[in-house]
Task: inverse folding
C-alpha cells in the first residue's frame, strides 16, 4: 500500500464479550470489569463488553447489567452490548450501554440453531432493535453472521447474501458488519462482499469480524483495510486481546484475530488507526497474559511469544 492515501481504521475490541463467551471458565463480573479497565488503559475506546442473553444459555455472559453498572463512566469510551432479539435490546437500553449490536445470521439453519428463528424473522426483530436503540438515544449496528460461509449450509450463494445485505441496509442501522463467524473466508470474498456494501449509499458504516480458524483472519483484515483505502472510506475491524474467543459451532476453532497482532500489522503497514494509533505492544502482551492466567487458556495470538519489532513509526 505504499503511496496510498492514509485512511483511518477503527479497532473494535471484542475480548470482553466474544473473547470470553466460548471459554470453559466463566469469569466473575469483577474480573471482567478489570479486563475492560486494562483495555481502556491501552487506549482502546470502542469495546464490546457484554451480551444480553439468557445466563443459563451463556453463563460466561451472566450479569450484563451488573457489569455495565460497574464500568468506568468515561465520555471517551463506547461500550457495546450484543443482543440477539428485542428482549435483549430492551435490557440493554436500561443500562449504560452506548451501542447495541444485533446479530442476524445469513443462513436459516445457523439462525435457528443460534437464535431460534430464521433469517427473515430476525431481520424483523432487528428492525425493532434499531427502533428501540434509536428511541433511547443509542447507536445500533447489525452484524450479519456466517456471511462468508456456514458450518451447516456450506458456501453462501451470492444471491443469498446479496438479498440479506439489501434487507439489512434498509433497517436504518448506524453500521453494518460482515462476520466470518467460523473462519472460512478469504480475501477475495472480503473484496466482493465489502465492495458491495461500501458502494451502497445506504451503508452508514462498515465493520468486519474475522476469526482466524483457518489462518486467514489477518489476510482478510488486510484486504478490508485495502478496501477502505481504495474506497476512500473508514472501516472498523473487530479483534480480541490475546486472540481469545471462538464459535461453539466451529469445533477446535482458534478464535478471533488478536488485537495486538492486528495493531502490529497495521502499524508496520503504515495505516492510521482510530483509537490507539500506537498500541503499546508490551503492555498489550501483558494484558493478554493476565487474561490467559485467569482463563487457564493459552494466548492464541503470536505477538505475545514472538515479541515486538522495530520498523516504521
Result:
Amino acid at each position: 500500500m505504499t503511496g496510498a492515501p492514509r485512511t483511518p481504521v477503527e479497532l473494535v475490541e471484542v475480548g470482553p464479550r466474544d473473547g470470553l463467551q466460548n471459554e470453559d471458565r466463566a469469569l466473575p463480573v469483577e474480573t471482567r470489569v478489570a479486563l475492560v479497565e486494562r483495555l481502556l488503559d491501552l487506549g482502546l475506546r470502542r469495546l464490546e463488553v457484554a451480551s444480553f442473553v439468557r445466563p443459563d444459555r451463556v453463563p460466561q455472559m451472566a450479569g450484563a447489567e451488573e457489569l455495565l453498572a460497574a464500568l468506568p463512566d468515561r465520555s471517551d469510551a463506547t461500550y457495546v452490548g450484543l443482543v440477539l432479539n428485542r428482549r435483549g435490546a430492551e435490557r440493554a437500553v436500561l443500562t449504560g450501554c452506548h451501542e447495541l449490536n444485533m446479530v442476524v445470521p445469513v443462513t436459516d439453519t445457523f439462525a435457528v440453531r443460534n437464535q431460534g428463528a430464521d433469517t427473515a424473522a430476525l431481520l424483523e426483530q432487528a428492525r425493532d432493535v434499531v427502533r428501540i436503540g434509536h428511541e433511547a438515544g443509542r447507536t445500533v449496528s447489525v452484524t450479519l453472521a456466517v456471511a462468508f460461509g456456514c458450518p451447516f449450509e456450506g458456501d453462501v450463494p451470492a444471491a443469498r447474501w446479496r438479498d440479506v445485505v439489501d434487507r439489512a441496509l434498509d433497517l436504518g442501522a448506524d453500521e453494518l458488519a460482515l462476520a466470518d463467524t467460523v473462519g472460512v473466508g478469504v480475501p477475495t470474498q472480503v473484496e466482493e462482499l465489502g465492495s458491495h456494501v461500501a458502494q451502497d449509499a445506504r451503508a452508514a458504516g462498515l465493520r468486519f469480524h474475522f476469526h482466524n480458524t483457518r489462518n486467514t483472519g489477518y489476510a482478510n483484515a488486510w484486504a478490508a483495510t485495502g478496501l477502505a483505502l481504495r474506497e476512500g472510506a473508514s472501516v472498523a475491524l473487530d479483534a480480541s486481546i490475546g486472540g481469545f474467543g471462538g464459535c461453539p459451532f466451529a469445533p477446535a476453532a482458534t478464535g478471533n484475530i488478536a488485537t495486538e497482532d492486528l495493531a502490529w500489522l497495521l502499524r508496520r503497514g503504515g495505516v492510521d488507526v482510530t483509537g490507539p494509533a500506537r498500541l503499546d505492544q508490551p503492555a498489550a502482551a501483558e494484558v493478554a497474559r493476565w487474561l490467559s492466567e485467569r482463563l487457564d487458556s493459552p494466548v492464541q495470538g503470536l505477538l505475545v511469544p514472538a515479541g515486538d519489532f522495530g520498523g516504521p513509526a
In short: The CA atoms of residues 110 and 152 lie 7 Å apart. Residues 9-306 form a domain with the TIM Barrel fold (CATH 3.20.20.70). Strands lie at 9-13, 46-51, 78-83, 99-105, 139-145, 175-180, 206-210, 235-239, 273-274.
